[in-house]
Amino acid sequence: MDTELLSDTFVDLADTMVADFDVIDFLHMLTDRSIRLLAASAAGVVLADPRGELRVAAASSEEAGLLELFQLQNDQGPCLECFRTGQPVTAADLAGPDQRWPRFAHAATQSGFRAVHALPMRLRDQVIGALNLFAAAPGPFDQADLRIGQALADVATIGLLQQRTVRRRETIAEQLQAALNSRVIIEQAKGKLAERLSIDMDRAFTMLRDYARNSNQHLTDVARDFVGGATAEFPPPARRRPSS
What we know:
Layout: H1 3-14, H2 23-37, E1 42-48, E2 54-59, H3 62-74, H4 78-85, E3 89-91, H5 102-110, E4 115-123, E5 126-135, H6 143-167, H7 169-197, H8 201-214, H9 219-228
């Protein structure tokens, strides 16, 4: 394991006390680092909105995002069970007999995933969502990886709840709802860019995210401008970050 990346990840996840904190980018960093550090092929995050309903907040790939959405739409799967119980949930072989979630298991295997582990995003008795790790090969996840994965989920949870405390519950509820809603804009931008450049959705998202970072803009703002036509061509010339 890359210990330097692991250390940097914990620092990044803890650094939420900034004026322009971007929830969506923060959660995508969590999924990206999870697959880079752990034995997972893909990762996704579901979060509860202000009404307590789960929403897909981030995913490392289009397949993982669709599978998370499938769980919510069909009201079955490890992430729902993890969120409702506040406990980790494992399925070591989704192609095996006697599946707890048959529709989800079929959809997962069709997407190329054979195992899944859901980790609660929890602080004491408050559960705000779940971090889900998907593997292409069957078999249990390594216990050391799961301990690190749970630690990543815990630090991310503390960061999000810290934001709620700092900006007060009502303000953060609105921010979280806006962040979840902004995913719709990002999905529209991904689709538009993918169609325009004849590329897949994952590549389209990477281009949008890279441009947002290189031009010092929020991902949601870049996506909204592109969907609304403010950005005539993509990618437009990137502004350089100011030197530190």
